[in-house]
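Sample 1 of the test manifest.
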Amino acid sequence: MIVPYTHVMLLGGVLFLLGMICTLTRRNLIMIILGLEIMLNAAAITFVGAGLHLQQIEGQAIALFILAVAAAEVSVGLALVVCIYRQTGTVDPQCIEGNKCQLKPDQTG
Amino acid sequence: MTNWTLFIPELYSLGAAGVFFLFCLCRPDSRRDYGAAMILSALGLFLTVWSVGFQGSLFEGVYRVDLYSQVFKVLIYCGFFLAVCLCADLSGVDESRHSEFYFLLALCTLAMMLLVSCVHLLAIYIALELSSYSLYVLVYLRRGYQKGLESALKYFIMGAASSALMLFGFALVYGTGQSAYLVDLMRDLPGRINEPVVLIGFILALSGFFFKLAVFPFHFWAPDAYEGAPHQVSAYIATASKVAAIAVLIRIIALSGGQSDRLAWFLIVLSVASMTVGNLAAIAQKDLKRLLAFSSVAHAGYVMIGILSLTALGYASAVFYGMSLLVMKFTCFMVVVKASENGRNISTGDLAGLHYRAPVLALALLLALFGLAGIPPTMGFTAKLLIFTAAMKQGLLWLVIAAMFNVVISLYYYLQILKAAYFIEPEGQPPPIVVSTPLKLAAIAMILLMVAGGVYPGPVIDLAGDMTMGLFP
């Protein structure tokens, strides 16, 4: 392998941190779910790197499974977001919490 | 050659989930769904009890069937069966969603049964995700309660984030341990657990299970999810889901080989923090389900004491604690379900006069709360005694003292509930609580179990010991 394993691990770690920051700071449910996806993909990259490093096919197989599970997760999450948007008319988690800002659906655009 | 006999309980659960899936396609009929759920879950319970003696390995060693996993499957199915028992009045869920409700509950049970048997990182991850996704939707199914939305959302985001953390931890463990099989990791990891990458990976890998168990930094979902979910789902989360989390947490922590002081320190900090946070927050709660949620955070801390002693005795006591939690928490939720009209949330004060409105329930509640507080002669006392003994053997005296302080704090709010149930006269004339005969039987069974676990716990302790012996090959 041309790229050493530690570099892959670093890449995975940085990507994971970026995803976490996105999840923690964004004020939009769609972006939060996107952040979760980035975290999962960072883990997948680390798995692929580890598989290459160890010369095992298992790491890549796990990455394929992660893709499928991530798709399922997004579908559950987005279904939840759609239901929430229909009821409250917003995708801002702060508004949903405690119904602080009730908006009509047409006001949010 | 795969021996499919070992897999019968799981196949049965899959079949049960399939039946409810077919019901989803038909016209909604809640009586049919309830009847089918009772029969299927009772049969499944018998099937899991029948399969306790099974031994073996399936699917290239990914799936291990042994005493440890089979007893936990019985406990999880018990949780499912008992949660279904509470569903006679499922008014917290929309009529047309009842089939889906049972379908997701059965699917979640299947996923947890898989979870306790998996000995491969990928299989553990997928089983955990399957059970979590079912629960996210189940929490959302609450009808006519504005907070249901918010709690489902919080549960989903916390759950997805902690499972991503866990997955990244798995990746690090896989890269350093050079295998995804727990058996191989067990050979390799104990010698290297103090290397930074291994330790970080290991701790991250635990976060997914900490989330399930509601241990301190991952507990924020618990009060909202308990409050916003239908009562039966809260009961299920508090019993079956917790038991499965304890099972897999022990399995993963047993990988460390009990050699790491740093890991033990980390676990001690989490344990003390979740006990204290849970108990102090519970004091301020008005809503009974929120109170029970914070009490489960505190109990997660007590369970961690057993686990963090990193010895066979400690693991066995944590298993015993899981069993007693199943019984006690179910009893509390049984009272919540019966005392609430139309599936709305109740506060502590709504229990007023319970002792003449439903004497059996009041007695069961009394014993369950005594057990949760750790007062003899109940199962909860034995469980706490075992856990503290295991910690003392490791020389963790001050940890036990901190835990005892917490037990005293927790007495305050448990006795507050009892005061409401026994000594406060209700305002006006609350309608008497009608307890059906099967539920009365269930309450009496719980009472007997709690007393038997306090007076004569020997056989169960031996069973817990035998179960955890299998973890050390």
